[in-house]
From TrEMBL:
Catalytic activity: 3-phosphoshikimate + phosphoenolpyruvate = 5-O-(1-carboxyvinyl)-3-phosphoshikimate + phosphate
Quaternary structure, from the entry: Monomer.
Gene name linked to the record: aroA
Record's keyword terms, sorted: Amino-acid biosynthesis, Aromatic amino acid biosynthesis, Cytoplasm, Oxidoreductase, Transferase
Source organism (scientific name): Fluviicoccus keumensis
Protein name per the record: 3-phosphoshikimate 1-carboxyvinyltransferase
Residues that hold phosphoenolpyruvate according to the record: K321, G394, R422, Q470, R647, R688
Family, similarity comment: Belongs to the EPSP synthase family.
Length: 735
């Protein structure tokens, strides 16, 4: 990549980058200059550099890349000393934590910032320093920000980018000003606070005792006060403006919390703490713009499921996802405190929870499925500070569209790569006829969704073209704020959790046949919600037990709302052995324990009326069909193509890879039952695909390897442990 690279400075960052260039053979010759002879000698002794120079001008002679890796305040004097020695085509780059002062220094020295100068900042420091602290993997999966100027040569920027990518970094570009503003908040301010806290404590007379008894909190909060003082001294001056502005914002925050404590305002204190705790967890995901699970786990999460085994015992799968979303939404919009038990602590429902925290609602938990929501009433939501990040969750985005369309403030909703491909015009269109100003700003009516607040909505009469509970619910929710009546007719029955829960919160919703009516202007009153286990999660075990010889399993406390029981109907039509026990009503939703025993399944033509009632269960039903005797035909299910993945194509591909005869059609699939082989399949980040193929191993002749499984955490945290406990030979591998 380069013939001769010269480093000015060989501290942690410089020497780590030199190690990368060596390890990856990206430079024929590496030389360096340092203020310390010892550093140069050490670097030569360990084979890091070919030659060391006391004078920076000597080091840069003949170099095609010069890396400035010394403290930022030395930039101007170093540039002065090398000005005559760098060639006209030499690329210059730096690694400083501030960019404005570096660029200004370059402009002063050269008259204008040279076109081959590419300012850069690897965000990979640590409190360690020195040539021996460097590591070749320091930059792996870290971000490097480049801040090229409008006149910087594109090819030079591209070469510097390639170098950092070779170091394993993710390279971003932004303006110099933006960089300094962002870093002031995320890096410089925390260092400022850590240094000043430790200094303040160290000044106290009993400081020895204080440090002796210092607990983990002190250690964690102040780790970075062990960083290089000279470097941070320079940074504090170099980005003075940015740091002071960040400090002012911080001081206001401290004052707010202080005042709340002084006033014994427990709700305000709890609000600040719960929002902060959640934000700490959430920011990483929002910034990465990917599914939470993926960010936590950038590697491929693979399921390896050995053939055979059976399912036995009692299993309680996590809470219903649809009901969990709605409990947060209605609880937030209600007057009073709503307590939820059995809440699904999966990423999708947590995205909804975070959205309401972003809009100022105080929400305690979740802890062991318990959530306490301090409702703010229908007019109490506040403008969120940023775009609302819905992760992988279509339900969050479509239901929230209805709520946000009626607020006074503007909002934007974004999602992960899967959600960013899903159709949003289906909800935007009816909301527009109600008077909403809503845009789908993606390429094909897809997210981000942008909503202008302050619109007066009016009720509509809407005949839904697709059977979608999300669209129905989004329009119904908007109807809470609309003038007059909103009347919705569905082409086929879809899940009615919104209607039931609205009634549970004391709101009048009328259902007559396929028509639902709601009038705006009422209020929601807080209530308690017991979320049953999710029949869509139980479905994997129903299919698993049906296909596995010897299986006999009881699924506890499963929601059997009549609009969700397609899986029971279809499996029974195929000859499945399912018994409902202890049927009861819990919080307005029917619930039962379901016993499932192995049965000889037969292929069927699936009843189209069952399609919306089993819409999320087809990935697992396709596995049942593959194990059945004869042919199974599904039609009328084109909706499957616009879920987290194209569930028709992705399931067909996987089944074919395992030797099953599967033929995808535009609106369904034809599957010939027969033996299932072992092999490798890809879930395309779709939780339900991953879990369905895991169950297929119960009847396969070889191990099934399933790739890209991190998103199982969106709807079914703990799936692997629960399935293993019941008898599936599943393990997780990261690679
Ligand atoms: O309203 C809901 O909670 C859901 C409705 C269904 O989506 P559609 O409305 O797109 O069919 C379903 O697939 C989704 O998992 C949850
Ligand atoms: C389609 C699903 O969810 P959502 O639309 O909320 O992403 C699902 O869970 O299968």
């Amino acid at each position: 990549m380069f013939a001769r690279v010269a480093f000015i400075g060989l501290g942690l960052i410089g020497s780590s980058l030199a190690r990368v260039l060596r390890a990856e053979k990206l430079a024929d010759t590496i030389v360096a200059s340092s203020r310390s002879d010892r550093t140069l000698k050490t670097a030569q002794d360990i084979g890091l550099i070919d030659a060391g120079y006391a004078d920076a001008a000597d080091a840069v002679q003949g170099a095609d890349l010069v890396v400035l890796a010394m403290p930022v305040c030395a930039t101007e004097s170093v540039l002065h000393s090398i000005r005559e020695a760098v060639g006209p085509d030499t690329i210059l780059t730096d690694v400083g934590s501030t960019k404005g002062n570096v660029v200004e220094a370059a402009a002063r020295v050269f008259g204008e910032v040279p076109i081959h100068f590419v300012p850069g900042h690897p965000i990979a420091g640590s409190e360690q320093s020195g040539v021996l602290a460097g590591k070749a993997d320091l930059f792996q999966r870290h971000k490097v920000i480049l801040t090229p100027l409008p006149h910087t040569a594109a090819e030079s920027t591209a070469r510097v980018r390639r170098m950092w990518e070779a170091a394993g970094a993710e390279v971003l570009e932004m303006t110099v000003e933006r960089h300094d503003e962002v870093l002031a908040k995320t890096s410089h301010l925390p260092h400022f606070l850590a240094f000043s806290l430790v200094d303040a404590l160290a000044r106290e007379s009993q400081n020895l005792d204080i440090f002796r008894y210092a607990a983990g909190g002190f250690r964690d909060f102040t780790r970075i006060a062990g960083s290089d003082p000279l470097m941070w001294h320079d940074i504090f001056f170099a980005n003075e403006r940015g740091i002071l502005a960040a400090l002012d914002g911080f001081t206001q925050g401290v004052e707010r919390l202080r005042a709340a404590v002084v006033a014994h305002d427990s709700e305000a204190v709890l609000g600040i703490l719960t929002r902060a705790q959640a934000a700490r967890h959430h920011f990483t995901h929002m910034l990465a713009g990917t599914a939470y699970a993926k960010t936590m786990n950038p590697k491929n999460l693979q399921f390896l499921v050995e053939a055979g085994g059976s399912l036995k015992g009692q299993v309680r799968v996590p809470g219903d996802k649809s009901i969990s979303h709605r409990s947060i939404m209605l609880g937030s919009l209600a007057e009073g405190v709503t307590e939820v038990t059995g809440f699904l602590e999966g990423e999708d429902a947590l995205a909804t929870l975070q959205a309401f925290r972003d809009m100022g609602v105080v929400i305690e938990g979740p802890k062991n499925g318990e959530v306490r929501i301090h409702g703010v009433g229908l007019h109490g939501l506040k403008c969120p500070p940023n775009a609302i990040y819905c992760g992988n969750s279509g339900t969050s985005m479509r239901l929230l569209s209805g709520i946000l369309a009626a607020q006074k403030f503007d909002t934007v909703m974004t999602g992960d790569p899967s959600l960013s491909k899903r159709p949003m015009e289906r909800i935007a269109k009816p909301l527009r006829t109600m008077g909403a100003v809503i845009q789908t700003t993606g390429e094909k009516g897809t997210p981000p969704v942008s909503i202008k607040g302050g619109q007066a909505l009016k009720g509509i009469v809407y005949d839904m073209p697709v059977a979608s509970a999300q669209v129905k619910s989004g329009v119904l929710l908007a109807g809470l704020w609309a003038e007059g009546e909103t009347v919705i007719t569905e082409p086929a029955p879809t899940r009615d959790h919104s209607e039931r829960m609205l009634r549970g919160f004391g709101y009048d919703v009328k259902t007559e046949g396929s028509t639902i009516r709601i009038r705006g202007g009422g209020k929601l009153t807080a209530t308690n919600i017991d979320v049953p286990a999710d029949i869509s999660s139980a479905a994997f075990f129903m299919v698993g037990a049906s296909i596995a010889p010897g299986a006999d399993i009881v699924l506890e406390h499963v929601g059997i709302n009549p609009t969700r029981v397609g899986i029971l109907n279809i499996l029974r039509d195929m000859g499945g052995d399912l018994t409902l026990m202890n049927e009861r009503i819990v919080g307005g939703e029917p619930v039962a324990d379901i016993r499932v025993r192995h049965a000889k399944l037969k292929g069927i033509k699936i009843n189209e009326a069952d399609v919306p009632l089993a819409i999320d269960e087809f990935p697992s039903l396709f596995i049942a069909a593959a194990c059945a005797e004869g042919t199974t035909v599904l039609t009328g299910a084109e909706e499957l193509r616009v879920k987290e993945s194209d569930r028709i194509q992705v399931m067909a591909d996987g089944l074919i890879a395992l030797g099953v005869k599967a033929t995808p059609t535009p609106d369904g699939m034809i599957i010939e039952g027969g033996p299932i082989g072992g092999g490798s399949v890809v879930s395309h980040g779709d939780h339900r695909i991953a879990m369905s193929f895991a169950m297929a191993a119960l009847r396969a002749t070889g191990t099934i390897e399933i790739n890209d499984c991190a998103n199982v955490a969106t709807s079914f945290p703990g799936f692997v442990e629960l399935a293993r406990g019941a008898g599936l030979n599943i393990r997780v591998v990261e690679n």
